[in-house]
Amino acid sequence: MTDRKDKMFGLYIHIPFCKAKCKYCAFVSTPDFSLQKNYVKALIKEINDSTLIGSAIDTVYIGGGTPSCLYRGALTDIMSAVKDNFTLLRDAEITVECNPESVTEEFADESKDLGANRISMGLQSQCNAVLRAAGRIHTLEQYEKAIDILSEKFNNISSDIILGLPLQDISDVDKSISVISELKHVSVYALTVEQGTPLFAEGYTADDDRIADFYDFACEKLADLGFCRYEVSNFAKIGYESMHNKKYWNCLPYIGFGVAAHGYDGERTRYMHGDDIAEYIMSPKAQSYTLTDKDMYNEYVMLRLRTERGIVLDDFAERFGYDFFHNNADTVKRLQGEELIVCADGSVKIAENKMFVMNYIIEQLMLD
């Protein structure tokens, strides 16, 4: 096993607070702001007590939830704990998530001062009626004001939209992309209606065929605007890919702090925190578990095939000690014949126009 001192870790920090819960959201978050100070104390305690203290960090992602709705000074205190306990590279990518309704000059200043060089802010739709139907509490006008504030201090801003929301049509997708076309990075997510969310309770179902049409349209429009797709849901202008998220897809090591956060040593050990915020505040600890050979193979196939590069054959052989085609020759041949995958330039990847049926293709190549 590689010594952790030789590893370069990413770092994810979960902030589970939102002013309101979106109707589609299944993430761990709460509108109970009375918990914020105790939560931040627990988070800093977990950082201070980490068994990985001293490790080198080249990406930090502060997500949620809505980090921008924390009380001022909290993000600074959290990052101070990170800097005190880890070796943060001078050119590390540091991302802070936010929502338009909680972006202020003070938030932008604090983010800049703590070292953030990348901001990610959700738009989801440019139509106020669609936003309301999805339970979003901001308007397009608030989003545009937030962009004005953030653009004064940050060159690297990412935004995201969701396809398949109630009341949404192709015109909304078109206009939403136009709104974020001047940014450096765009994420395009297909709506999934999960049990336990308000949309599920309302009986709303996502129309997969309609979403597929929206996705194809979005891919074409973003390409015309100079965005390159590097993962099924992520598009960037040259030089602005998310270095942190690429760690997940490339099975590289990362540390997770906070309720519901996960971590991975890059080899066989993963760990996860529970979903109960009150329990985390009382005892900010994670539980680890060991991956089997099958787990490692399936995770690698699933994550790598999400990317535009796909499974790099040399990397696969180095990780697993055998050739990818050893157990997959017949399946690969069949999928090639169905024009679902492409084998070229030392990789196996999903065909460019088949990314929306990615899950089916991945299932064919995973171990039972």
Topology:
Elements: E1 8-15, H1 36-48, E2 56-64, H2 74-85, E3 87-98, H3 105-113, E4 118-124, H4 128-133, H5 140-151, E5 157-163, H6 170-179, E6 185-190, H7 198-201, H8 208-224, E7 228-231, E8 234-236, H9 243-249, E9 254-257, E10 262-264, E11 269-272, H10 277-282, E12 287-290, H11 293-304, E13 311-312, H12 313-320, H13 329-337, E14 341-344, E15 347-350, H14 358-365
Parallel strand pairs: 1-2, 1-9, 2-3, 3-4, 4-5, 5-6
Antiparallel strand pairs: 6-8, 7-8, 10-11, 11-12, 13-15, 14-15
Helix pairs in contact: 1-2, 6-8
C-alpha-based Rg, rounded:
21 Å
Strand % is 15-25%
Order of helices and strands: EHEHEHEHHEHEHHEEHEEEHEHEHHEEH
Profile the largest sheet. Answer: 9 strands, mixed
What gap, in angstroms, lies between the N and C termini? 27 Å
- Principal-axes geometry comes out as globular
- Count of β-strands: 15
Task: Determine the fraction of residues in helical runs and give it as a percent range.
Answer: 25-40%
Averaged pLDDT, please?
96
In DSSP terms (H or I, runs of 4 or more residues), the helix count works out at 14
